[in-house]
Amino acid sequence: MRLALATCLSVGTALAGEQRVVMLDLQGLQCYACVQTVKKALQSVPGVQEAVMDLDKKTATVKFDSSKTDAQALIKATAQAGFPSKVR
Ligand SMILES: [Cu+2]
Fold first, then answer.
1. Which DSSP helix (H) or strand (E) runs through 85?
2. How many A from CA of 55 to the centre of ligand 1?
3. Is 70 exceeded by the pLDDT of residue 5?
4. Domains detected in the chain
5. If you measure from the C-alpha of residue 13 to the centroid of ligand 1, how many angstroms do you get, rounded to a whole number?
6. Rounded CA gap, 34 and 48, in Å?
7. Which pLDDT score is estimated for 3?
8. How far is CA 18 from its chain centroid?
9. How far apart are CA 67 and CA 14, in angstroms?
10. Residues of the chain above pLDDT 70, percent
11. pTM to 2 decimal places
12. What is the tens place of the pLDDT at every residue in 21-42?
């Protein structure tokens, strides 16, 4: 039942817009506090579905709805949180 509902929701999301994934370079990431700050900043951007941070590689892999946001908005969000980024 729960699984069926989740499937319906994911179909609805897919129809709402095109899902895109972008990897951002974040050279300012030093520790897990930085990671949490950037993750929160990215997740607060409307249209972002998931932000997976990698402290070792200093990257963020962001899944988003391309009808609601774009890579420029993601870069702006990390910069406003104090962490300039660029698309890898
Ligand atoms: Cu830190």
1. none
2. 10
3. no
4. 17-87 (3.30.70.100)
5. 33
6. 19
7. 55
8. 14
9. 11
10. 82
11. 0.80
12. 999 999 999 999 999 999 999 9
